Structures are given as C-alpha cells and as structure tokens.
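Recall that a protein's primary structure is simply its ordered list of amino acids. Everything else, from secondary elements to tertiary packing, is in principle encoded there. The following example makes that idea concrete.
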Amino acid sequence: MYKILLLNYGYNKKSIYKLIDMKSKFNWQIFISFGLLFSFILIAFSGVILYIAPEGSFSRWIGWNVLGLSKKQWEGQHTVFSYIFIAFCIFHIFRINWELLVSYFKTKNFKLIYIKEIGITLILLIFVFTGTLMQFQPFSGIMNIGRNISQSFEKGVEPYEIPDAGIITLEQFAESYLFISFNDLESRLNELGFKTIHKSITIEEFCLKNNTIPFELYQVLKKEVPVKKNY
C-alpha cells in the first residue's frame, strides 16, 4: 500500500526500494546517540543520589534507600552504567567521529590552528583535578554540601558506635552491643515474632527477611533488654 502512495507522490521504483532499505538498515548513529543519552541520565541521577547518601555502614543501619534501592544498589547501578557510557563513548569516537578526529591531526598547520583549544582544555581539566584534590574553593564547597546533607541523616540515631549491619552477625550484635548471650537474644526475637534467627546471619540480612531496618530493630530490642552504652 505504501509503495502505491510513494508512486503517486512521484517516487520511482528504484527510489522506493532505496528508501525501504534505508529504513530497514540498522542506524548506528542513532543507537549510539541514544545509548549515550540514556546512560548519561542514569549516571547523573545515580551520581546525585550517591552525592547526598549517608556513609555506607550508617546507610545500612537506618535502611536508607531511594526509590526502593539501597545505597549499595545505587553504587552498583552507577558503576555499571559508567562502564556502559564509556563503551558508547568508544563507539562514538571510532564509529562516528574517528575520521573527523583524525583529520584534526592531519592538518598541516595543526599546531597553529588547534593549540589554543587543546591547551585550554588541558588547563581546565588540570585545574579541576588539582582544585578537587587540594580542596580549593569552589570544589571544597561542593563536597561540603554533599557531606552536610549526608551527615544530616545521622541526627537522633543510636547507638553512638554504629555497627556495620552488612557485616556484623546477630551473635556479635548480641554480645558486643546488647551485652547478652545469643540464646537470650534468640528467645526475645522469637517472643517478638521475628523469623530466620541464627548466629551467622548478618543484621542487614535478618532485617530484610523480617521487613524492618537495623535501627528499628535496635529500638525494639533496647526496650526489651537493658542495653549498656559502650563509650
């Protein structure tokens, strides 16, 4: 049907088949461009989340998450999509812009024509790298904003020495932070209706299986157990 319409608009058969071939042929430029766009969006979004996220062990202690994903999961997304973005950048250079890039270096008067642009680019990159490393303004200010937001999550949260919920086991938690035996902790957890109680399970895993977070678990247990502060 569409062939008839194209013929009516003045296209000959040769032009029609060429147009159909162009439509059916895989367009690398579009694929790479959208790949760069979408991976950049995900890198930028996950980067902002990690910029304001609390410190790792603390984020696990309070069950911190954004859109249902924990800090660790956002770190995974950020890392993987960074590699994907790099891959698309490589494709973009060698598949689309390679000839143009090479032509810059083949120009007879290359040094005279492009030395200013290349020099400014390198100076800018070195300036940003050095400023961030040495914590000069405005780079230190940018880092401090993220740090202040991250630390704001710590207000009103106990205990003072926060265990790493992703590493510490229930047995270690009982003995080092509640100062009771694991058997006593197990009895109290059973009374409170918790499940999957065994010595080697981490606090983080235990809380995930019981639909709670380490901080809330601690709040419940300290009412049941005379918790001592370990300053």
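The radius of gyration is 29 Å. Residues 1-101 form one domain.
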